[in-house]
Amino acid sequence: MPTDSLVTTDSAADADVLLHLLTGAWVAQIRRTTATLNIADHLAHGPATAAEVAERVGSDPRTTYRLMRAVASLGVLSHEGERRFRLTPLGALLRSDVPRSMRSLVMIQNEHAHWQAWERLPGAVRTGRNQMRETHGTDLFGYFGRPENAGEAALFARAMGDLSGLVTQGAVAAVDTTGVTTVVDAGGADGDFVLGLMASNPQLRGQVLELPHAVPGARAEASRRGLADRFTAIEGDFFVEVPPADLYLLKVILHDWSDKSCLMILRNCRAAVTQGGRLLVVEMVIGELGKPDFATRVDMDMLTVTEGMERDLDEYDALFAASGWRRVKTYPVGGGYSVLELVAAE
């Protein structure tokens, strides 16, 4: 082998880094256990000893201390001495009762559906297919539709709602709806995005296009916010058609689907958009290769459990061009997400 092809390394330092990397799965389960036991909630009002937390949780005092000691090494707790621990700002995100809580997200990514499929990541890479059917006999949403998985499905729904909250506030603040009359939130779940835009612009009329099981939740959320008089939740399938609108919202939708499926959604929006209308795609965008990039890790999750993927701007632009759209603006909105603003191509 030519000497110039050899990689020089500080083996001790690099081994230390690799040791930390290989325990990533352990760290994920440590955080999941912390969230599952509601330890952050039990420290919400001030420091407590591990024994006090164990009594509140109903867990073993010694192993609770060992867990909290490990969690403190991750920056989620701080040790105050005498086995007393305090919640850090990072740890506060694991509380169940705070805005932008990430507790459900931490839990769902390490529950059965995702965790078991991740064991088969090598198979996903070899075959180019997600591993949900091999692992669970159905796709992700089929898995959540089984009665025996109702608890995990509810956790997934809460996690997606929390994720939406990380994104929606920044998106609503960034999006200009001047001159817009009708907004359709395609696959918008409870309508968090479109309802946020409606609250900031009293001239907007909003719609959520969703599958039948999600429609009642969207209507209830609109009523809760006092926006029901300008809001409609309609049953439909964005792979078939979408209603006419001045502005379409696709928030964290395209990454769930293959290129072929994405083109169907985008073309249906293009066919129905009014003259001068726009489409807003909210997604993570993969950045410069070789740089730290959370989106590339999410991409591995998409590979493992869905037919979708995270994409870079070139990949998105190719989809947009093939479906009759043109990207005119891109801006970050928080949580690692960006808005890709599209207009109809001439």
Describe the structure using short key phrases:
346 residues, alpha/beta, Arc Repressor Mutant, subunit A, Rossmann fold, 2 domains, 8-stranded mixed beta sheet, 3-stranded antiparallel beta sheet
Description of the molecule:
By secondary structure, the chain is of the alpha/beta class. The protein folds into two domains: 3-95, Winged helix-like DNA-binding domain superfamily/Winged helix DNA-binding domain (Arc Repressor Mutant, subunit A); 165-288 and 307-344, Vaccinia Virus protein VP39 (Rossmann fold, 3-Layer(aba) Sandwich), CATH 3.40.50.150. Helices cover 47% and strands 20% of the residues. It starts with 10 loop residues before the first helix and ends with a strand. The model has no long low-confidence stretch (mean pLDDT 91).
What are the SSEs and their pairings?
Layout: H1 11-22, H2 24-36, H3 39-42, E1 48-49, H4 50-57, H5 61-72, E2 77-81, E3 84-87, H6 89-92, H7 103-108, H8 112-118, H9 121-127, H10 132-136, H11 140-145, H12 150-174, E4 182-186, H13 192-200, E5 205-210, H14 215-224, E6 231-235, E7 245-251, H15 259-272, E8 273-286, H16 294-305, E9 311-312, H17 313-322, E10 325-334, E11 337-344
Helix pairs in contact: 4-5, 12-13
Shape: globular
Largest sheet: 8 strands, mixed
Instruction: Write the CATH fold name of the largest domain.
Output: Rossmann fold
Total domain units: 2
Rg over C-alpha atoms, rounded to the nearest angstrom: 23 Å
CATH class of the largest domain: Alpha Beta
CATH architecture term of the largest domain: 3-Layer(aba) Sandwich
**CATH homologous group name of the largest domain:** Vaccinia Virus protein VP39
Give the N-to-C terminal Cα separation.
Answer: 55 Å
Order of helices and strands: HHHEHHEEHHHHHHHEHEHEEHEHEHEE
Rounded average pLDDT: 91
- Measured as a percent range, the helix fraction is 40-55%
Number of strands: 11
